[in-house]
Task: inverse folding
């Protein structure tokens, strides 16, 4: 049985480092991910739940005037997230909770989004079960995530070698998760996933998937 972890340990130095890192690197990451995000985050409804919003990378995909329920347990991200939502004109409902346990009612949400979060949560299967629980019939979960490279490739080797310093630096992030398999096994009615490869200097991060799943 998987142990369900619903607490988040805030590290004052690494939390602040990651908030600054994603603020500084945000435009570059967006440039690399824009094509995939535009596809899966197209036509979002007026109220969206986001898991692990960070400093607000996905706010540009929400229309001004819409509502973002941001499930973000890491307080060092909150100030920048609030400021980014205000600049975008998005109403922010910020919840300091983990994605494994959002506290939202069953079947209450039309759309859930995430980017670069299932790599970091302690229990991706529990998060996917939570997404299924809170989505209404007909609702969608849209995501852009980085994943384990194909076995035997140089990228997969590098992901293995760098796993400890990478996880330490990026607060638990793993480049070794087969998230496509996890999403396919999570019991959604329909799963559309596209694997692709980026060409950034952050090689372990370059194997990615983007998808839309329906309950
Ligand atoms: C790599 S950052 C990505 C942030 C943002 N989504 C982006 O694309 O820039 C991972 C985010 O997941 C958050 N996170 C970590 N564990 C989490 C959990 N159990 N539930 C929800 N969010 C979590 C972190 O605080 C961080 O903001």
Result:
């Amino acid at each position: 049985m998987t142990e369900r972890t619903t607490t988040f340990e805030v590290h004052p130095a690494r939390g602040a480092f990651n908030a600054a890192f994603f603020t500084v690197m945000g435009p570059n990451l967006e440039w690399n991910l824009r094509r995939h995000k535009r596809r899966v985050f197209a036509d979002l409804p007026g109220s969206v739940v986001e898991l692990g919003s960070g400093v607000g990378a996905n706010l540009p995909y929400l229309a001004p005037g819409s509502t973002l329920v941001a499930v973000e347990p890491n307080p060092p991200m909150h100030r920048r997230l609030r400021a980014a939502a205000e600049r975008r004109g998005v109403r922010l409902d910020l919840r300091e909770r983990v994605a494994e346990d959002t506290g939202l009612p069953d079947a209450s949400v039309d759309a859930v989004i995430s980017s670069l979060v299932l790599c970091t949560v302690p229990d991706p299967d529990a998060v996917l079960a939570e997404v299924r629980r809170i989505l209404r019939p007909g609702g969608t979960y849209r995501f852009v995530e980085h994943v384990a490279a194909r076995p035997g490739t140089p990228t997969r080797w590098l992901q293995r070698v760098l796993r400890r310093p990478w996880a330490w630096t990026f607060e638990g992030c793993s480049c070794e998760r087969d998230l496509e398999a996890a999403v396919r096994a999570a019991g959604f009615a329909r799963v559309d996933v596209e694997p692709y490869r980026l060409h950034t200097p952050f090689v372990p991060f370059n194997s990615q998937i983007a998808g839309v799943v329906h309950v």
Summary: The domain at 12-214 is CATH 3.40.50.150 (Rossmann fold). The chain has one domain: 12-214.
